Amino acid sequence: MAAMSSVNPATGEVLARFDEIADAELERRLALAAATFRSWRRVPLAERAGRMRRAAEVLEARKDALGRTMTLEMGKTLRSAVAEAEKCAWVCRFYAEHAERFLSDEVLPSSAARSYTRCLPIGPVLAVMPWNFPFWQVFRFAAPALMAGNVGVLKHASNVPQSALAIEAVFREAGFPEGCFQTLLVGSSRVQRIVEDPRIAAATLTGSEGAGSAVASAAGRVIKKTVLELGGSDAFVVMPSADLDAAVATAVTARTINNGQSCIAAKRFIVHEAISERFEQAFVKRMAALKVGDPLDAGTDVGPVVSEAELRKLSEQVDAAVKAGGRLLLGGAPSGGRGFYYPPTVIADVPPTSPSYREEIFGPVALLFRARNVDQAISIANDVPFGLGSSVWTREPAERDRFVDELEAGATFVNAMVASDPRLPFGGVKRSGYGRELAREGIREFVNLKTVVLQDAAAAAGQPGAAME
User: Fold this and answer.
1) Domains (ranges, CATH) in the chain?
2) What is stated as this protein's family in its record (predicted)?
């Protein structure tokens, strides 16, 4: 079988190689997932919660080592990688605490003696996950899925095999039964086969549009549910009433978080013309002051992009934007030397005729636009195929309400940076995908919402809602 390589983006060094599992091993693991589901679904919620809390403890105890694995494998700064492990512990505890309430029976009115809905698990769920948040993307799926009584099988990005195996080890150390969560070291060419396997009940994917389309198409042919999060080109809108200093400082963080490789990173900065020059000068100054370097160094602000291929793609997108007429204000070329480094870059006034105007740009590259008024700001913000997040900076209630109602996005954060939070539903519209992760909505995506009708009073005795009459 083909080999997977773990490459350090800061040096280009190959850290480890892993062979894909053979077909026989894949079959064994899928059979194990199906068998484990039949028993795991009957485990009481309180017991599931205890193991999920133990997973949180394992993550916190090992956060430094796990963070180092993430940093070496995909280049995020060490402090952000450790914080990612801590956030994974948070989502584990969140669902351990709230799953019972989220999944509880809900009494409904009807002509029968008693009617209610019950959330029941559906089976093994395939998760196809990306490299940019190698732990968080997985745990925000796994914590609710396992608490709901499902089991998980992970096809992680092929360039983060060490992270993928470490996640499986966390669940094993936390006491989850064998087969409750499994990492499958397989390439993308085998995903369709796994999706179509009758033992897989559903699939979730975070990644590119192409990958999402392929998984959704395969699932559609066999009538299986999918949840997709396919990236974005988030707008960051700044109006004259905003606290400009706070907006600029947050804008720099929002563009360069995770070395600029985040689906919900702000990528297009749309600023009212009355303050655009002040914003531009302050923003470029702050971007230029960021330290680019070794992600293991505590003083580093921006590390490398994940791979040589991504570095080349990023360079091509910047070159195309400038060639089309964009004003290059900072950066604009790979750093050169060892590793896959691209400096913080700012380009203003990219015309709509440039592909870079509407593409998602993964890396520390910001596009600046000027807007005459609220109408034009909304028009520019919506003039992309994506609709994941959006950030709006204004202290005018009327403007705030316009943006909340009219921005085509799964989330709008007012005077704040877009971020995922276990307590809040997360997902997008348009070509950013469909479905929701996190919060109550996330745990209910992969359940059978069964309607139960008890026609006579004798059958209804002792059932949900009996004490309400």
Assistant:
1) 3-230+432-452 (3.40.605.10), 234-414 (3.40.309.10)
2) Belongs to the aldehyde dehydrogenase family.
